[in-house]
Design a protein that fits this description.
- With 241 residues, the chain is an alpha/beta fold.
- The chain is 25% helix and 34% strand.
- It contains six helices and eleven strands.
- The strands form four sheets. Strands 9-8-7-10-11 form a five-stranded mixed β-sheet, with helices on both faces.
- The longest helix is centred in the first third of the chain and has 17 residues.
- The chain is elongated and about 110 Å long.
Length: 241
């Protein structure tokens, strides 16, 4: 978990009415949104003869984020190859011919129009129109599992590493899918899914699905050519290799 140092100034009247300033370092133990924080304060004189205690409740707005995963940078390198491949792969060619042109050394032999080549007595190449690159979506499917927080930690670390990249990240939790642009608050507030849900409709997109624990539905997802599924233990093993 991560948190910043929280400082609260207040005046504590004790004998001489001096102003006391306390600096408090707060260590969270669970991820989430904190709106109220209780603090137990004990004050005494210089010699400790007299003590006075009080309990204060402060209104705060703290976001407790997932832990930064130790393999976050390794995961970023692993999945960077997916994005690099996508940039180099301009989608699947359509069957619509863009033009014919003479064969040049280095061209793919599979694109030669042999029938037309025999008529013109030279090698003629078919050029097909290309589709746009397929967009990759990193999707966290928040299945309730003992590995939920660990996988969320890895996904959060990956999201941090990919800041500035043209990659789309989506959280799917108890309250539905996150908005298009993730924020840190989304990572603080997401809760596990109590029931299985359908994946959002990302037609024509390549989905890399992160699921805490493999199950029958995850196996059904992996049957689609548009979905790659990684459960936590499987991904952890691959990252350590």
């Amino acid at each position: 978990m991560s948190s910043s140092q929280y400082v609260e100034d207040f005046t504590y009247l004790f004998y001489h009415g001096q102003k006391k300033t306390l600096q408090v370092t707060w260590q969270p133990y669970t991820r989430g949104i904190v709106q109220k924080q209780m603090m137990h304060i004990t004050a005494s004189d210089l010699f400790g003869w007299f003590k006075k205690e009080s309990v204060r409740t402060f209104t705060v707005d703290w976001q407790v984020l997932p832990a930064v995963h130790p393999l976050g940078k390794v995961a970023a390198g692993f999945f960077q190859k997916q994005l690099t491949f996508n940039k180099q792969n301009f989608g699947e060619p359509s069957f619509k011919i863009k033009k014919f042109r003479p064969y040049q050394p280095g061209d793919r032999l599979s694109q030669i129009d042999w029938k037309l080549s025999s008529k013109q007595q030279e090698l003629v190449l078919r050029e097909y129109e290309q589709e746009q690159p397929i967009e990759i979506i990193f999707l966290f499917y928040g299945k309730n599992s003992s590995s939920f927080e660990a996988m969320l930690s890895l996904f959060y670390s990956l999201w941090q590493e990919f800041q500035g990249e043209r990659a789309r990240f989506v959280l799917l939790g108890e309250h539905g899918a996150s908005p298009t642009n993730l924020t840190k608050q989304d990572f603080s507030s997401i809760q596990p899914l109590n029931e299985e849900v359908e994946l959002p409709d990302f037609e024509g997109k390549q989905i890399i699905l992160f699921i805490p624990e493999i199950n029958q539905q995850a196996e059904a997802f992996s049957a689609s050519r548009w979905v790659q599924v990684y459960d936590y233990q499987q991904l952890l093993q691959q990252l350590k290799e």
